[in-house]
Each structure stands twice: as C-alpha cells, then as structure tokens.
Amino acid sequence: MRIFQEQILRAEEEVFQGNLENAMTILTNLDDPNTTIEEKIIINITKGRIILGRRDYKKAENIAKSNLQDCLAYGNPLLEIDALVFLIKVFISVGDSKDVKEIIGQTENKLLGITDSTPDKKQRELDLLYQKASFFDLKGDLDTALTIFMDYSEKLEDYSVNEKISESIKVRYKKAEVANMIGIINQQKDNPEKAILNVTKALNLFKEINNKNRIAAARNNLAIFLDMKGEVNAALKHYHDNLEMARKEDDKQIMGVTLKNIGGIHISRGEIDKALTCLEESARIKKTLGNQESIAFTESDLALLYHKKGALIISMQKFEACLNYFTEVENEYRQAQMLYYLIFLAVDCKEHHKAEEYLALLAKINSSYPNKEVSQQFKVSTALLLKESSRSRNWIKAAEILEEVVQEEIVDYLITVDAMFLLFELLILELKQSADSEVLKEINNLAVKLTEIAKDQSSYWLLAETYWLQGELALVNSNVKEARQLFSQAQYIAEEKGLERLAMKISSEHDELINELTHWEDLIYRKASLRERLEAARLDEVVKEIKKQERIIANEPEEEEPIMLLLMLKSGLPAYSKQFSISPQMNEILIAGFVTAIDKFAKEAFSVKGSIERFKHEGFTMLYKQVKPISFCYIFKGQSYLATKKFDEFIKSTHKSKEVWSILESLVHTGRRNIIEENEELQKIINQTFKVDNLEN
Fold first, then answer.
1. Which 3 state secondary structure label does DSSP give 679?
2. Is 445 exposed, middle or buried (0-12, 13-18, 19+ CB in 10 A)?
3. Is the pTM of this model over 0.85?
4. Could you tell me if 282 and 297 are in contact, meaning their C-beta atoms sit under 8 angstroms apart?
C-alpha cells in the first residue's frame, strides 16, 4: 500500500505540473490484476482529473458518474466525497449548474457525517469549498464567490502550515489557482490593482512548479489587466507569447481563450477584420472542446462585433442563442446581460415590439435577482425605450431615470457610460429646442464627469473620445482655440495607446475644423446664436457616432501631397528648406509666405504635451513643432493623419542622429547653412521618411 500511495502522489504531482501524459502512464502501470477495489477507485478518480484536464468533458463526465457508483457500492465515505467533488468540478467545467447545488448539499451532509477531524477530512472540506466558490462564480454571484474564495485561501494557508506541507507542489498549485480566481473576480468587479496583485502571485507560483499550461492561463489574465490599464502593446506581447506556446503544446483551451482576447484588442483598435478572424477561430476551437459556457462568451463577443459592423440580423441571432443557453443553465446574471444587449440591438433594428418583449423579461429578472448591475441595466433599458417614444413627457421620464443612474455608484462603468450618452442625446435635443444656456451647462458638466470616469477606469479609448466630444462642446461655447487643443489631446492619446482608427477619425475631424476656421471666426465675430453654433458643431452627430462606434469602419487615410519641409531658427529665419517639387522658381515665394504665416501662427499656438500643431494657409496645411533650439514645419496638401506620422518620425530621426543634431545646434550660433544643406545623413532621413524620389532644394 505504501508503494501505491507513493506512486499516486507522483502521479498527482505530474498533474499539478501539467504533465498529464506522464501522470497517465504512472496510473496505467499501477492498474494491474492485484489492484484492490479501493486502489482502483483512487486510480480512476485521478484518471478522471487528467481527462478533464485534457478538456475531454463528455468522457470526464462519464468517468465521474461511474466513479460515484463504484464509491457508493464500496462504502468508503472519503472516496464518495472525492467522487462527488469531482462530479461537481466536471459540471462546473462544462458550464452546467443545474444539478450542482443539490450535489454540493449531498457532499456537505456526507462531510457532516464524518465526526473525526482528520487532515483527510479537512482536505476534502477545502476541495468542496473551492468548488462551491466556483459554482457561485458560474452563477454570476461574484460577491459570494469572492468571499468563499478568500475564505478558502485563508483555510488552505492554515491547513498547509499545520500539516507542514506549505512547499509541496500540490499546495502551491492550489494557492496559485485560488489567487488566479480571486484576480479574475476582482477584474470583473473593476478592481484592476487587486486583480494584478493576485494574478502575479498565481503566475509566480505556477512558474515555481513549472506548469506551462497554467503559466499561460495566468499570463493571459495579466495581459487582460494590462490592456485595461491601456498598456495595449505589452498585453499583445503576452498574448502572442501564449499563443505561440499553446500552438506548440497543442493546447486548444489556451488557444481559444488567447485568440478571443487578441480579438478584443483588435476591436479596441478598430481593426474589424483582424478581430473577426481571431474571434471566429476562437469560436471554432471552443466548439471542438465542448465547453458551452466558454462558447457562449465568445459568441456574445462576436455578436457585439457584428452589431458594431452593422450586421444586425447576425448579431441578434447570436445574442438570442447566448440568451437561450444562459436561460437553460439558469444564469440570471448573464441572461440580464444578453437581454440588455438585445434591447439596444432591437431599437437599432427599429423592432420596438421585440425590445418591449426583452424588457419584460429583464424586468422579471430584476425583480427576482437583487443585483445592482442588473438594476442599472433595467433602468437604462427602460429609459432607452422611453426616449424612443414620440411623446415629450416620456423623454422627461427617460432623462430622470438616466440622471438617477449617472448619480448612482458605478458598478459596471460601461452601463453608466451608456446612460450618459443617452442623456447627452436628450439634453442636446432639449438644447436645440430651448437654446437655454443652463442646458448647455448641464451638458458641459456631464462631459467633465465622463472624462473623470474614463480616467478612473483607465479607458483610453473613452478618454480620447471624451476629449473629442469636449472639443465639439468648446466650439459650441465659441472657443476655437480650446477645441483645437482638445482635438490634439484626443488624437495624441489615441495614437499613444495604439488606437489607430480612432486617431484617424479625430485627425479627420480636426482637419475639417481647420478648413472651417474662417466660418467659425465669422460666427464668433458676429456673436451667432447658440442654435446656429450648435448646428455648425454637429454635436448630436458626434454623440451618436461615438455611442454607436461607427469609427470601426472608418476609411483608410489618404497619402498627402508633400510641398515643403522647413527648419527654422528662433529668430524665425529658415535654417534649412527642402521643396518637394520640380519647380525651383516657386521657392522664394513659398518660403517667404510660409515663414510669415508660421511666425504668425506660432505666436498663437497652443501646446499639448507631445502634440504637433497644425494650421491652414493659402490652401496648404502646415504642421509645426518646436524642439529647442529648432522649429520644424512640414507643408502639404490633403489629409493630416499620415502626414503627421511622417513629420513626427522625421523629427525623432533627426534628433536621434548625433551628426545631424550637432550641426543644427551649431547652426544656431554660426549661421552656416551650407553645412546642413550638404549633409548626406539629413538627406537620407528625408528620403526614408517622406519616400519622395528626386527631391531638389
């Protein structure tokens, strides 16, 4: 028996290290004609855990049920508890919670029947406690799940210390698993700092026992939290590292999860085709694994993406399928989430009767399932349908409900943001009708609060959008300079965080403002009415565009037509000029006009950290940035987005080149322009950056 126990411990250690095939070999070798009934049961339970680890859910369920029958026939209470706990784990793993509550009750009664307080009993109490927490997590009761997981963590620590097994592979694995789950739940509850702390702890413990599969899982979670903080590139690196490892190990579970998460980042960047590719591959992989809950989560992400893309029928079909699944497994929390999405979708489809039906279902859940998030979803959905009414009194009711949600504690900030954008629409409608400055003040205050939420949640997409929105509000408030500053700040944030599509859209809006500057100056000069300024700013269109995320399908930016590059001294005199033209006689006229215009605009230029100023002059666009002691200017025709990127790249390359920068610094004191004009390194940088052949001075 001692040799058998040693081999079982070896097999368990292999399982905890992720070496499932090694563990299975050990168990197969143990199972011979001399094996006792008790030993055979222990072997089968351990084999079942391995098969579950392989994500062969159907086979694992059959083994779990067979093991339970064998244990009941044999009559060993501890083994019966092991079999019941494993059966619970299987059901939770496949997302089936229907019978779990009853089985948990049976297991608790069996534990109560064991009167002796032994390490074996305590170990099983801990195993059941973990599965109980997982059950509440599956049901969407995050608060209860977190409380039980925290209790489990403390009891596991006490148990391992008292039994002097704190450093065993088994205990470190269990500590890592619970830390990982606590991290995940904290992430779901919008507490990223605690999430990062716990998942980092889990990752380190998994590394200690060298479990590659669980290292990948924890690293995936860490990438999620980095993404939440706006560190998108760092998150992507973790994801791609995991994907590479998972493909090598042929770990479809990690592949499916990682692809889903990579798809999420592509969505945030507005890269719709890449996002669809990742999510659809993730869905295909998850369907082969058979985890219905995991499939539903990926399908709901695809439904959201199709909604944003405008494929409303496909989106509705997917959401309804997810709703049916979560209804079947009695997960009211997820049902409410699907209904919330479906109500917005039905309104977009102009199917208000369907929206009313979904709202009625959501109302039932809201009355039977006390949850703040569900309550807010119900309120916002109710307000949405009231807002869609043609009656002004319903608009008033909708605004009151939305103001209530905005003032409440933020449970899920996206629900609060939904409420705020619906309220924006109603307030703008009221402003158009009344031209009341108090209403404009409310809108301004709401925009400030939206900015605070974006900062608190580290939502850089929302922050960039909010600055864009505030820029439009600045125009309504007759402050063009502030509007341009906010547009620049919005674009800078979007570019810094890798949100390219959003940056393109904001740049395009900024270009439009530059083109309309004369019109805005005229409106301000003649003190145009609030209604007229509101119409010119298109504030309502911007709110709708942001709310519906139409930016996802933004057009590709066009290449600009380069005209001239200027480097100037503090005095305003050109230190260097490069004309992108075959017409040398234009040189003096262009330089004289541009230098005068640049000097004028530079004195009025606002400054946003890291931003590049843009101006309009005689049909040309000019980009300007000062990097002491040199001022840089790029003149072109066309869109600014790609031009700005080239200009920024040129400045960085120039500054990085010790040779070129040293000449520019000496030029400030000597005035010897011929040195820089003849410098081959500068010519090389220009050619590589602007990609224009046969350039002439």
1. coil
2. exposed
3. no
4. no
Q: Assess contact for 639 and 651: CB atoms under 8 A.
A: no
What long-range pairs does 510-518 form, CB within 8 A, spacing at least 24? 510/484, 510/614, 510/640, 511/614, 511/621, 511/639, 511/640, 513/475, 513/480, 513/483, 513/484, 513/487, 514/614, 514/615, 514/616, 514/621, 514/640, 515/616, 517/480, 517/616
Q: Which amino acid type is present at position 628?
A: K
Helices (H), 310-459: 312-328, 332-348, 352-368, 372-387, 392-407, 413-434, 437-456
C-beta separation of 147 from 124 below 8 A? no
| pLDDT (mean) for 344-362 | 94
How many angstroms separate the Cα of 625 from the Cα of each of 288, 356, 605, 612?
55, 54, 10, 5
Query: What gap in Å lies between CA 181 and CA 137, rounded to an integer?
Result: 9
CA separation for the pair 642, 648 (Å, rounded)? 10
- pLDDT averaged over every residue in the chain: 86
Handedness of CA 47, 52, 58, 64 (dihedral sign): positive
At residue 378's C-alpha, the angle toward residues 375 and 381, to 5°, is 150
For 223-261, the pLDDT digits (tens) are: 888 787 767 788 888 899 888 888 887 888 888 889 988
528 burial level (CB within 10 Å; 0-12, 13-18, 19+): middle
Any residues with CB less than 8 A from the CB of 412 and at least 6 apart, and which?
190, 373, 376
**Residue 39 is which amino acid?**
E
Distance CA(678)–CA(684), nearest Å, equals 11
Q: Look at residue 479 and give its three-state secondary structure.
A: coil
Place of tokens 């009750």: 105
pLDDT digits (tens, 9 = 90+) for 541-575: 888 877 765 444 445 678 888 888 888 777 667 77
The helix (run of H) or strand (run of E) holding residue 617 is strand 613-617
| Residue 634, beta-bridge partner list | 565, 623
> What is the 3 state secondary structure string of 427-464?
HHHHHHHHCCHHHHHHHHHHHHHHHHHHHHCCCHHHHH
Using CA atoms, how far apart are residues 424 and 356, in angstroms rounded to an integer? Answer: 23
Q: Phi and psi of 614, rounded to 5°?
A: -130, 145
- Give the full edge-to-edge strand order of the sheet including 613-617: 574-579, 561-568, 630-637, 620-627, 613-617
Instruction: Label residue 459 left, alpha or beta by phi (over 0 means left) and psi (-120 to 50 means alpha).
Output: beta
Contact 602, 624 (CB under 8 A): yes
Tokens 């800078």 -> residue: 492
Q: Phi first, then psi: what are they for 624, rounded to 5°?
A: -135, 135
**Which three-class secondary structure string do you get for 149-185?**
HHHHHHHHHHHHHHCCCCCCHHHHHHHHHHHHHHHHH
> Considering Cα of 466, then 468, then 470, then 476, what sign does the dihedral take?
negative
> Whose structure tokens read 């990127």?
645
CA distances from 548 to 33, 198, 423, 543 (A): 67, 35, 14, 9
As a whole number of angstroms, the distance between CA 564 and CA 622 comes to 9
Closest Cα to residue 90, out of 71, 129, 62, 70? 62
C-alpha 515/C-alpha 505 separation (Å) is 15
Provide the CA 95 distance to its chain's centre, in angstroms.
24
d(CA 476, CA 280): 43
* 646 token code pair: 């080239």
User: What gap in Å lies between CA 430 and CA 436, rounded to an integer?
Assistant: 8
Three-state secondary structure of 73-121: HHCCHHHHHHHHHHHHHHHHHCCCCCCHHHHHHHHHHHHHCCCCCCHHH
Say how far apart CA 467 and CA 473 lie, in whole Å.
10
Query: What is the mean predicted confidence (pLDDT) over 640-664?
Result: 88
Q: Are 464 and 499 in contact (CB under 8 A)?
A: yes
- Burial of residue 150 (CB within 10 Å: 0-12, 13-18, 19+) is middle
Question: Which region holds residue 573: left if phi is over 0, alpha if psi is between -120 and 50, else beta?
Answer: beta
